[in-house]
Structure formats: C-alpha cells, structure tokens
C-alpha cells in the first residue's frame, strides 16, 4: 500500500537529517578548527625548516623574558586547576533489603485495613482501588510495628526500625568498601518524617564510635528529594575539606507515620510508602579515584515553594478527627510537571549536547518573538543520558515523566521495577533503581546517569553521575535473588 | 462477659498476621476433598505448654520469624475460603496469613496449670475463632484470641511470668485432621531449628479437583456417622441445641493396665488395645448416666494405618461406625470392646458420597452426630520442640461438636526414657448438663483424683 512506504522512507530521511544536524552542531568547533589547523600546517611545511629557524631567531628572546613568561603561564595554569571544583567520587553504595517476614501481601494489607477501618467501608474500598493500580508488588515491606492490628507505632519501635535499617545499611557498606567508621569525616543522614532527639546522625555516631571532630548533619522534613539534597550538601563540604570522605545515609522511617484515620487524601501514603534505606560513600581523595564507581557531575535543585499551591500540595496536618497524616492534593501531578520543567530548564544547558541546545534556543526565541502558540521544543534527554533513575513516587509520577521526557519503556524500567519490588522507599528509591541497572549488567564506563527526585515543598532535584568504571553484576545487593524475575509486566490493575 | 479474673490474668495482647515469606504464586487454589468439607463445622483447639527451660534465650521474634519459612511449606493455611460458582467452597492461596496473637500472663506456668481445670480459663489461652460471618475474610488457622478475627488458623502465644509459654492453636477442620495439625505444628519446630522438614516438601496439590469416591455406586443411605444440619450459610458454626463443656483427666500406665486386667483378667493386658478399653468403659458409663436413649451407635476415628505423607494436610483419618444390636447397659465392657474391634464399619465412602451428591453444599456434623471416640495415639503431638525441648503438656479439644458428645484419647506427656504405653489424656466434650454426673462416675471408675 502506498501510504505507509512514504511515511517510512520519510521517517528514515528525517532520521538521517537529524543525525547529520546533531553531528554538525556537536562537533562544530572541531569541524571549524580542523581546516584552519590543516591550512597552518601546510603553510609551515611550505616554509621549510631553514625558514622556520630564521623566524625563530628573529624573535630575539631574552632569557629573562622567557623565564618571566613561563612563570606567568605556569601561574595561570595553576590558578586554573586550583579553581576547578574538586571531583567528587562515589566510591560505593548499598541498599537495605528487608527480611521476607516484613513483606506485605495485598490480601493481608486489605484484610488488616478492613479490620482496622471496619466502620469505614468506603475508605477501605478506596485503599483497595489505590493498591490495585499502584504498581506495587507483593514483596514490598513494612516495619513490624505496622503489621499489628491495630498498628503500634511507638517511639521505641520507630527507633527500632531506624536502627535496623540504618545500621544494616552501614554494616553492608563497611564490608563492601573496607572503610573504617573512624575514618569518616562527614556524616549526613536524611530522614524526612522521623526526627528524634538526639538525631539519627548522633545515633550512628554513637553506634560506630566515630571521631569527635566528625562533621555531622541531619536533614529532616525535606521530603523524598532529600537524598539528592544530602548529596549536594556532601559535595559542597567536600569542596571545602580536602582529602576527605563523606557517608550519606538516606532513609524514611515508616513506623511513626502510619495514618490511622479515614480521610482519603491521607490514606494514599499508607498504600505506597515502604521500608528502605541506602548508604553512600563519597570521597574527594585521589586514591579513591580508581576504585570509585561514579563521579558526580552536576546537582541541580529547584524549589517551587514560593508558589502557595506548590507549597501545600504535600502537607502534613491533622484530619477532622485529630489524626495526623500527610495529605496529597489533587494538583500534585500538575505541580510535579511544573517543577520538572523548571529543573530541566536549568539542567539542560549543563548536560545537553549543543545540537539540542540550539534547537531549544531557537524554539524559545520563536515562541517569544514570533508565535507564542508554537509547541515548546522538548529537548531529547536520551542523548544526554544513558540511564534514568526517576524517583519511584508512584505509578503516576513515572508515567508522567515518561510522557514529558519522551522516554521509552526501557528507560523507565528501573523505576517501575523498583516500585514493584520495593514500593516507594522515598529518598532511597533512586539508589535501588541504580542498583537495578547494575544488577542487569547495563552500567558501562562512561555511561551517564540522571537521578530525578520530587519532594514536598515542592522540590525537584536532580543529580548527574558519570560511570567511572564498568560495574560488574553484583553478587550481593537487594536484587540478587529476584533479578531474574525482572523485568516483569505490571498490569494496570491487579485483581486482589 | 469477661470476669474480673480474666482481665487481670492476661494483658498486653497484640494481634498480627503471619504469612509465607516467599510469594506462593498467582491464582493458586486448593480444592478441599469431600471429606474435608464434611468436617467443615468442626474446629480443633490445641494447647501446648512449654516450660522456661524450653524458652531459654528465645524471644517472641525468635519464635515468630521461623513461621514465615514454615508457612512457605504450608501456604494453604494462609489462604482464605471462597465459594465457586457452584457454591462449593475452595481455598484461595493468597498468602493472606494466619492470625498470631501475643499476650502475657501474670501467673507462672505452674500456678496456671494448677487452675487449668477451669475450662473458662483455658479458653483464654486458646483462640476461639470460627469461619464466618464473612467467609472471605476468615483465617483458616489462628495462633489466639477471642475475637471475631476470621482466619483459617489462629495462634496465641502467652508468655508466663516465669518465662514459660503456652501456644494455643485454633484450626479449622477443613484444613485437615488432628494428625495433620500435629504434623503442621511439628514443622514449626523444624523451621525454628532451621532444619528441613523430615520429608522433602511436597507442595499441596494445586488446583486439584476433588476425588470422587472410587467405590461402586453406593445406596443412597445417609452415612451413619454424620448428621445433616440446616444451612449454616457463610457462618460455619454448628447450631448446637445445648452448650457443650469439655473436661480432661490423665491416665497413668499403671491405671491403664489395671483397667485392662479388670476387663479381661490378668491376660487381658496383652489382648485388648488401650483405646478400645477406654472407649468401652466410657461408652457404658455414658449409657448409664445419660437421661434418655442410650447411645447404640458410636463413631470411631483413628489414624489411617497407611503411610502418612508428611507435609500434606488433609482429612485422612479413618472414620468407622459401630452399631450395637443389644442394650449397652446389659453387657459387660469386654463385649463392647469386641464389638469395637470386630464390627466397626468404614463409613468414609458413604460420607464422601453424601457430600458429592450435594456438591459440597451440604452442612454435616461428624463429631457428636453419634457418641464419637477419637484415637489420637498416632498423632505426634509432642513433636513440636522449642530449643530441643518437648512441651510439658499438650491438650486438644474440638469445637462444633454435636449433642451426642466426643471423647478424645491423646498421648500423654512422654516420660523420660520410657517406651511402650505411656500416659494418656482423655478429654470429653459433653453437654454441660451431663458433665457433673459423668465426672463423678469417671472418678469412681478410673480411680483418679
């Protein structure tokens, strides 16, 4: 049939045009300079060696002048290298894997829900609908206190959960990297909803008997994007302190935050949030350069808190019955989209190849000057990055980002599978996703990874990593016993 | 309803759910056999007592954690009942789980055992769950609690102040007979010791169709051992016309020998089996004490003498009926014994037929339709071990028993290093208006304290 053929050949032609354009723009400098260099070289060769020597002597260099100029040049070069930011390496990271006894089968969750909310069948049905469409699997985990009917969230059980996940993660990291806790110079712990006194970072320091001059920080209340904020903070500190390393622990403690009421907007987190933690070791030491897995290229943070709607879209408050929960507004997806737009506008110039930037600029100019109705050009981020780690906040978030950034299912596979296996583990989900990509053997040297996280506030933070050495499929890790089952098809609606 | 005593005895109750640690799989269903459905209105209530030595160094978590591995093998118990389109119940193995209740007791184990005779108090330690009113939400097994939590199984772990522990089990008979329940509990001990089960695990048959009775077309007589009950719907409780009460007594080996010799002379000890001796004596006693017609038909339940397959739960026990053509009051117990041994008729094909005819919709009662005797000698009740220690005492009762009553003969606590007939525990579940007289007669007859 005639119509498909022209389309196909058209798209092929377009593809080659696009490729040609990209090559031209991305290598513009090279393409421009190469003819100039060749011309110069030809000229020099034409001159011949004697002529060159004559030219050299005619310049009449004085010894002092030579010394002075060389010092000047060396000074400039040194200043240039000193002013460059210290590279920050990610030596290694681990993710906590909860034991199977903490898992939450759908049927158990729904039965508990029916018993606890026996007077609110509508809320129970709502929870069931959420769970069916959530994209979670039957192996996500909740802490022991939440398994009771009714849940028994006490301070003690919250601390118990914190100790269990954080210490397990740190033990794993210590074993894997060989670092001694006494050698850690900077400690940053982020956990949004549980903030006891003394802090969780103090708890870590106490357990591992760390040095008294350790620089410790505890970030709380910053939502699911706090993981990237912690990395940003670590990076800034590693610029100021030479020859240091930083331990970053990202987690979310579920025990104290189980909502026990019936407001629908607040029941959502109960269905989605699950146990998880990650521990990351960063360093700026030269000695770690060879064994580090990744190098941190960029961190871009965007805060939309100035807008009232964005500020209130994830809000912890009391419901009419006085029970505390986190209410999610219906505009969440729209606000997330806005925040993402902000973020990629900032990160675009840093990471996109010149070809995409030119197109984006042209589209921007066109929209501003000629016709505001033109569709904005969405840069093709697939050219800038090899892997995407989108915070597994929920199925809707991943769907939205896949649509906005025009990503293929393979790009969002890590996010979807992490959501299925581990649920929404908040700030640590990015690391589970990274771990998935490694477990699948897809991480190669030179690959660029983009981690995007959204969080209350409303914030959109992203981090860009460069893979420093090809990562072999790990023999331990949270995916080791189940990676063969993935990727799996997660149906739109699961029948419970 | 709760007496002041009860409130102060048990405190700190926490309810949770235990389920298989590994995903059982999607859409796995277990079809109960006809025998399973015939037993559906009965519930086994078991209690296991462990002293503080057995619990040394063990916390509740140490006991609870291995349950997740244990249930990987017995995932049927974590399922829930559903009704097929035909109305026939089946078990959906959806990992919903078994209810597990933890509680503490103000008394020590010794103090508690002294007041054990009070049935009401023992009720505190054993969950009394039933299936229904919501069929789909009822657990098949409960490890404690006097609540309306509806599981197929339930368990209650009560920690005594001395460090000893009691484990109460509530078990829906549709899952399996007492022999299966005992094997099931043994598996827990194995999981705690991190051993593999004695037999390689054979998964419960998935998606099996109920086996039709292999015998030739039987006459359309109702089985003798059962009684039809009016439709109970989704609430599987036997609508008993009278309240049943349970009581137990122990029999030592010398007492048993004495009974056997009383019946058959000094040589009788070799000739007649223990179970039939006890049955005969009790049968006659009940005929004597009962107001109303004497029980001419009795049902006997025993272990299937064929090799039992460990790891598979089911109602495989042998159910036989014995019909006396003469008045019980006028004969010697010895003749009753001969009747029990020689004239017992296997009623199982008839039961299966009856259920098959209705396609599993009929509601039957087996225990208590006639005076029923159950021989639990073959059940490895003391096989559950904590820290390598056997329980100090194990008791089993049945709920949902019919008005004719039920007598359970259980193996007693094993004495150290003794072989052969050890002690026995006899538990009777009778209408409460008959209990007092029966107790005094039994005391006289068995010369027990």
TrEMBL record, chain A:
| Catalytic residues as annotated in Swiss-Prot or TrEMBL | 224, 303, 387, 391, 420, 424
Query: What's a single GO CC term here?
Result: membrane
Q: Which Pfam families match?
A: ACP_syn_III_C, FAE1_CUT1_RppA
EC nos: 2.3.1.-
- Reactions the enzyme catalyzes: a very-long-chain acyl-CoA + malonyl-CoA + H(+) = a very-long-chain 3-oxoacyl-CoA + CO2 + CoA
Give the source's domain of life in one word. Eukaryota
Q: In which broad location class does this protein mainly occur, judging by the first location in its UniProt entry?
A: membrane
Supply the alphabetized keyword list.
Acyltransferase, Membrane, Transferase, Transmembrane, Transmembrane helix
Its subcellular locations are:
Membrane
GO BP: any one term: fatty acid biosynthetic process
Residue intervals of the FAE domain:
81-368
- What does the record give as its pathway? Lipid metabolism; fatty acid biosynthesis
Which positions make up the signal peptide? none
Tell me the protein family, please.
Belongs to the thiolase-like superfamily. Chalcone/stilbene synthases family.
Q: What is this protein called?
A: 3-ketoacyl-CoA synthase
- Please report the organism this UniProt entry assigns to the protein: Actinidia rufa
Automatic annotation (TrEMBL), chain B:
Cited InterPro entries: CAT-like_dom_sf, Plant_Fungal_Acyltransferase
Question: What species was this sequence derived from?
Answer: Actinidia rufa
- Region (Disordered) residue ranges read 195-229
What molecular function terms (GO) are annotated for this protein?
acyltransferase activity, transferring groups other than amino-acyl groups
Regions of compositional bias (Low complexity) in chain numbering: 195-212
Locate the coiled-coil region(s) and give their ranges.
Answer: none
Write the protein's name.
HXXXD-type acyl-transferase family protein
Recorded family membership = Belongs to the plant acyltransferase family.
